[in-house]
């Protein structure tokens, strides 16, 4: 059994050449928002949800991106409303958010 029910990796990679990357699309703020929101909802921590930074996840053209394990579900997002939908539907209800899936 996994230590976490869900493990979320948010790409926060910065490309040194200045080209578009998840970090330039607000990924660090998104990761902070996800972590804080999950804590507020009481779903963050052992046995529940873990939110982590990730280096480049190699899907820059579809960014910003995050991936949720153990299902290996990949998402893109635009704003906190999208992140809230991922939290509610995927992390709380166990449903894939098809419109954000990549």
Helix content: 25-40%
The top level CATH class name: Alpha Beta
Cα-based radius of gyration, to the nearest Å? 13 Å
Based on the coordinates given, report the CATH architecture. Answer: 3-Layer(aba) Sandwich
Unreliable stretches (pLDDT < 50, length at least 5) are: none
Oligomeric category: single chain
Q: What structural class is derived from the secondary structure elements?
A: alpha+beta
Give the SSE layout.
Elements: E1 6-11, H1 27-40, E2 49-54, E3 65-69, E4 73-76, H2 80-92
Parallel strand pairs: 1-2
Antiparallel strand pairs: 1-3, 3-4
Helix pairs in contact: 1-2
Distinctive features:
Glutaredoxin; 26% helix; single chain; 4 strands; alpha+beta; globular; 102 residues
Written description of the protein model:
This protein has helices at residues 27-40, 80-92, and strands spanning 6-11, 49-54, 65-69, 73-76. It is α+β, with helices and mostly antiparallel strands and 102 residues long. It has one domain: 3-Layer(aba) Sandwich (Glutaredoxin). A hairpin with a 3-residue loop joins strand 3 and strand 4 (73-76). Helix 1 (27-40) crosses helix 2.
């Amino acid at each position: 059994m996994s230590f976490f029910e869900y493990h979320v990796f948010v790409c926060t990679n910065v490309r040194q050449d200045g080209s578009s990357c998840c970090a330039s699309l607000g990924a660090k703020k998104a990761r902070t928002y996800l972590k804080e929101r999950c804590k507020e909802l009481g779903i963050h921590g052992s046995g529940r949800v873990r939110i982590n930074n990730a280096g480049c996840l190699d899907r820059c053209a579809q960014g910003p991106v995050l991936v949720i394990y153990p299902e290996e579900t990949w998402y893109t997002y635009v704003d906190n409303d999208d992140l809230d939908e991922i939290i509610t539907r995927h992390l709380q209800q166990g449903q894939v958010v098809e419109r954000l899936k990549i």
